[in-house]
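Notes from the 1:1 (GR / supervisor)

We went over the backlog. Supervisor wanted to see one worked example end to end before approving the batch request, so GR pasted a single chain during the call. The sequence is below; no edits were made to it. Supervisor asked that the structure be written out right there so they could see what the output format looks like.
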Amino acid sequence: MSDYVIPTPPVVALPVAGNAAKFPVRRVYCIGRNYAAHAIEMGHDPDREPPFFFQKNPDNLDPSGIFPYPDHSSDVHFEVEMAVMLKSGGDKISIKDAESHIFGYALSLDMTRRDLQGEQKKMGRPWEIGKAFERSAPCGPIHPVSETGLLNEGRITLSVNGEVHQEGDLNQMIWKVPEMISYLSDYFTLAAGDVILSGTPAGVGPINRGDEMLMAADGLGEVKIKVE
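Structure output shown during the call:
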């Protein structure tokens, strides 16, 4: 007899480059407006104010290479990001110890139903309906930090149909990865399997059915995503 009254949900797990074993996902934290130029293009002051985060669901992460255009929106935007995967966690992690908790990195998209997000902003409501919809975080394989080294700088880009729309450098983050980990751990208990989407450079914009997106970053290769 099962210990549960319904079937247990499957574990969300992502592929790891060069490894048959997968990375199980616990939580997904996303930092907002973490590149100055993107903050400006979204109409906000890029000064170093305290960071803010929202969450996606673990099963929003999707390594399939396909992004189904979602319902209830006619203005879906791409936002390329570096995802940071944690192998351990805790509370009140110091900045100097933060990087010791990193398992690896991956390319990811924070796809956004911008029209729905905009409506929520006007009403002062949470963003989840615009951010945490099904398959809203297409991603590539995880590259272990043992292979890449710590990624604190390097070019990151997003192209649509061969044209570069987003281009930045990881060193342009307002809040660096160790600072994000430390800050989050003051408010949440971080743990192995947690994922942090570290923000997007300027140049975000809409996609259409049939488009092909290509995200790339130094040390993380390229990942193609087809919009259907």
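Supervisor's comment: The chain has six helices and 18 strands.
Batch request approved.
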